[in-house]
Design goal:
This protein is an all-alpha fold. Helix content is 42%, strand content 0%.
Length: 97
């Protein structure tokens, strides 16, 4: 990410150096897809996707050993603040009984 920010000259961040497609522009889709690898998105969208994917892997566990915060290298309070800002819901109110 740092390399792309340094190389950034305006417009969307392409992250072409990560995929090895240097100089090629990734395909752009007009439809929202679950395949985030082929989409150009904002950093907030990318962060929300990554947090949701991590929460899926931890079955919604945020703090403690094996929780999403630990896997993401964040304090659980920091992760919850990011989730609030990004509109990612958590807690008992989201559980279906």
């Amino acid at each position: 990410m740092e390399r792309e920010l340094i190389r950034h000259k305006g417009g969307p961040l392409l992250f072409d150096t990560l995929s090895g497609n240097q100089g090629e522009t990734p395909p752009v889709s007009n439809q929202k897809s679950h395949d985030i690898d082929n989409e150009i998105c904002t950093l907030d969208e990318l962060m929300a996707f990554h947090i949701r994917r991590t929460l899926d892997k931890t079955s919604g566990k945020i703090h403690g050993p094996g929780g999403a915060a630990e896997l993401l290298g964040l304090k659980s309070t920091t992760l919850r603040a990011k989730m609030d800002r990004l509109g990612i819901m958590y807690g008992r109110k989201d559980r279906i009984l």
